[in-house]
Write a structure and sequence with these properties.
- 55% of the residues lie in helices and 13% in strands.
- Strand 5, helix 5 and strand 6 form a beta-alpha-beta unit.
- Helix 7 crosses helix 9 and helix 8 packs across helix 9.
- It is elongated, with a radius of gyration of 25 Å.
- The termini are far apart.
Length: 223
């Protein structure tokens, strides 16, 4: 039997929808029900309104962020605290912002799904079901972008490995921490003169004139 939108029910068969826009959250709820969501739904204007409930026996929480940047500190902090406080209740984000960086920030905050508003409602229902069943949903578009990002990172790692020797990498790591040659030599069990040679070689390979420029060029080339 198809579930309904209700203002009273709160149990393990209920999905909370959080959206500060009244019309949007009501339309979303009705649309999800019409496209096969087999859960009761309760609507909330904010995360704090949901937290104020005396009981939190919900199947999951769907937060519609609209156009807002998910990377806004206040939003990220709120959702991270929500996930930490209620670890057994899956949190899913619905957003009009599809930037991969937003997706990664959301996943790092602990959400179980990041649904772009451009996908169809039937897919949205399936995505919610996957998250509530213990899976993690990201769109195919985001997954493609993620594969490209990983491939780019691997390419840069290969380039860096071809440019520097393992010992030069050790010296670079120490330089990035602002350590002087004497300390680098001690920690790497090298002569200080050897460290100076490594530093000169690193600077030559990067066409850098000093340590600061080394760090700048490394960041520009490989980050």
């Amino acid at each position: 039997m198809k579930k309904s939108l209700t203002a009273e029910t709160h149990n393990a068969n209920t999905l909370a929808i959080i959206d500060d826009r009244a019309l949007d959250r009501e339309c979303l709820a009705q649309s999800l029900i019409a496209h096969g969501l087999d859960l009761d739904i309760r609507l909330f204007a904010s995360i704090s309104d949901w937290i104020k409930l005396p009981e939190h026996d919900f199947a999951g929480i769907l937060i519609n962020t609209g156009h807002r940047e998910f990377s806004e500190k206040k939003m990220v902090d709120e959702i991270r605290q929500l996930v930490d406080q209620f670890p057994n209740i899956p949190v899913v984000i619905l957003s009009e912002n599809h930037d991969l960086r937003q997706v990664l920030v959301a996943l790092e905050a602990g959400v179980k799904g990041y649904i772009p508003s451009a996908i169809g409602l039937s897919v949205c229902v399936e995505a919610i079901g996957l998250a509530l069943a213990g899976g993690v949903f990201i769109s195919a578009e985001s997954l493609t972008d993620l594969h490209k990002l990983v491939a780019s990172a691997e390419h840069k790692e290969r380039q860096r490995a071809e440019l520097f020797t393992p010992r030069e990498e050790d010296v670079i790591d120490a330089l990035s921490r602002g350590k002087p040659n004497k300390i680098i030599a001690y920690e790497l069990n090298l002569r200080e003169s050897t460290v100076k040679v490594h530093v000169r070689n690193i600077m030559k390979k990067l066409n850098a004139s000093n340590r600061t420029e080394v760090m700048f060029k490394l960041g520009d080339l490989f980050n």
